[in-house]
Amino acid sequence: WYRSEVELKKISIDVLLDLAGIYVGLCPYAAQINPCKGNRLPKSMMRKAIDSIEANVQWLRKQASATLAKVFHYYEGDALSILSIIIREEHISDLKLRFDIPPIYQRLINEKLQTNLCPF
What is its EC number (predicted)? Predict the structure, then answer.
């Protein structure tokens, strides 16, 4: 018989629902050992949250990067002036305006990046 071990760090406990499928989905070697349908490891909640934010930033970069750069150069890099003319006042004052990601993802990101902690 053959013994193969895999160490999976920081992996959700959900892999226990389909051990064989997850193992086979790891790499071609693992697929040779067990002839069952493979499954990829599910994305972590943190990765899903980060992907969601990165998608929004990528959209903004693709749609408005050149125009934002022109405004940046016109105002000689004064970030406060730039943001004050670009972002509407009602959006700045709307404290409920957030990324379209589930609250659990937002909480994970805040914990990871420590964005809600005040250092003083």
Answer: 5.99.1.-
